[in-house]
Design brief:
The structure is a single chain. The chain contains five helices and five strands; from the N terminus they run E-H-E-H-E-H-E-H-E-H. It is α/β, with parallel strands linked by helices. The protein has one domain: HUPs (Rossmann fold). It has a five-stranded parallel beta sheet with strand order 3-2-1-4-5, with helices on both faces. It binds adenosine-5'-diphosphate (ADP). Adenosine-5'-diphosphate binds next to helix 1 and strand 4.
Length: about 150
């Protein structure tokens, strides 16, 4: 069984995340969208909303599960029996950041990180830009799945 997790804050899920998840589905038997809980971080959307947006977006997709976790991502992988971490790459900044994390995770465990390159047309989308648009009353609907509503 090839089980992968796709970890992130998803505050909120964007069409960039959605694209990586859709393209990850055929690669694995099960894909767990793992919402990391960081007590130090301030979120725009409460956990229940972030969870709900994702669950609703993938309700027709039996291979996708949505869970939350605290602590190290590799520990969560072990807990749910996942051997792969899926991540998306948008730009050189993502690459450098992700490289260090993937190397560290390899040092701590056997878990492989699988990277998918962002689709052309999605690379500029980030949760932080979506939050800015929402904060300032802009039309965010073209940047997120239909299930994300304020
Ligand atoms: P974090 O809180 O770890 O930064 P995010 O919710 O921002 O989590 O992102 C989770 C994952 O989704 C990361 O691998 C990130 O690179 C990827 N991702 C986010 N936006 C995009 C996008 N537009 N295209 C491809 N991958 C993306």
């Amino acid at each position: 069984m090839r089980r992968a997790i796709f970890p992130g804050s998803f505050d909120p899920i964007t069409l960039g995340h959605y694209d990586i998840i859709q393209r990850g589905i055929p690669l694995f038997d099960e894909l767990v969208i793992a919402i990391g809980i960081n007590a130090e971080k301030k979120y725009m959307f409460p956990l229940e909303k972030r969870l709900g947006f994702i669950k609703e977006a993938f309700q027709e997709e039996p291979k996708v599960k949505v869970m939350t976790y605290k602590g190290l991502t590799v520990d969560f992988c072990k807990k749910v029996g996942a051997n792969y971490i899926l991540r998306g790459l948008r730009n050189p900044g993502d690459f450098e950041f992700e490289k260090a994390i993937a190397h560290t995770n390899r040092k701590l465990s056997e878990i492989e990180t699988v990277f998918l390159l962002t689709s052309s047309g999605k690379s500029y989308i980030s949760s932080s830009i979506v939050r800015d648009v929402i904060r300032h009353g802009g039309d965010y609907t073209g940047l997120v799945p239909d299930t994300v509503r304020t």
